[in-house]
């Protein structure tokens, strides 16, 4: 497994986190930032995962631009 394959895997993982709908998927399970602020468990593992999901959702535009760059690069490089 090369470095490029690892980077593509991380990009796919970031895309998967970015498309999670907070209202339909995360809220019924209690995985929202508001829920964590009320309980005060921001430094727990669950809090870190919710923070990562929120960061990926917040950075959607740069993620889309990075996806476009990878697609164009793969089109030209083969």
UniProtKB/TrEMBL annotation:
Arranged from A to Z, the UniProt key words for this protein are: Membrane, Protein transport, Signal, Transmembrane, Transmembrane helix, Transport
Key word NADP present in the record? no
Which cellular component, as a GO term, is one annotated location?
Golgi membrane
Q: Which GO terms describe its biological process?
A: endoplasmic reticulum to Golgi vesicle-mediated transport; protein transport
Signal sequence interval, chain numbering: 1-18
Q: What is its main location?
A: membrane
Report whether Transport shows up as a keyword of the record: yes
InterPro entries reported in the protein's UniProt record? Yos1 (IPR013880)
Q: Tell me the protein family, please.
A: Belongs to the YOS1 family.
Q: What is this protein called?
A: Protein transport protein yos1
List the source organism: Raphanus sativus (Radish)
Gene name linked to the record: LOC108849717
């Amino acid at each position: 497994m090369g470095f490029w394959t690892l980077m593509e895997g991380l990009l796919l993982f970031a895309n998967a986190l970015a498309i999670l709908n907070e209202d339909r998927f995360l809220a019924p399970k209690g995985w929202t930032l508001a829920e964590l602020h009320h309980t005060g468990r921001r430094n727990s593992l669950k809090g870190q995962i919710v923070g990562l999901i929120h960061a990926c959702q917040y950075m959607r535009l740069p993620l889309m631009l990075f996806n476009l760059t990878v697609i164009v690069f793969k089109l030209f490089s083969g």
